[in-house]
Amino acid sequence: MKFNVYWKEIKFLEVEKIDEMYYSTVIGKNISKIKQSGFPVTFISNIKSMDKELPKLIQSRLPKADYMGEKIKDTTNIEKAIIDYINQTKCKRVTDFISMEIEE
């Protein structure tokens, strides 16, 4: 499973889950593009390249399980619930331009 994170439709982060680890790759060639269009780069300055948890940038976009339950039908498998939620909403907020997609 791979999380793709975008700023104004420009992909700047890929996070791939392999076994129980998350591997993060910042798309270096797109950093100057997202900076020029207003992205606060400090949000990605502390992303670890390998971690047992999703990067905080992605975690902060995910609502609590009870809210996800309003958007999706099955929350018994939390990982599947997160995937379904991201696929349905792209984690877009009206206050910024970050969005996400998942490749399975």
Number of helices: 4
Number of strands: 5
Average pLDDT rating: 87
User: pLDDT under 50 segments (min length 5)?
Assistant: none
Strand portion, in percent?
A: 25-35%
Describe the 3D structure.
With 104 residues, the protein is of the alpha+beta class. The protein has four helices and five strands, in the order βββαβαααβ. A five-stranded antiparallel beta sheet has the order 4-3-2-1-5. β1 (2-7) and β2 form a beta hairpin. The radius of gyration is 14 Å and the shape is globular. The mean pLDDT is 87.
Name its key features.
single chain, alpha+beta, five-stranded antiparallel β-sheet, globular
Question: Helices and strands in order, then pairings?
Answer:
Elements: E1 2-7, E2 10-18, E3 21-26, H1 31-36, E4 50-51, H2 56-59, H3 65-71, H4 78-89, E5 98-103
Antiparallel strand pairs: 1-2, 1-5, 2-3, 3-4
Helix pairs in contact: 3-4
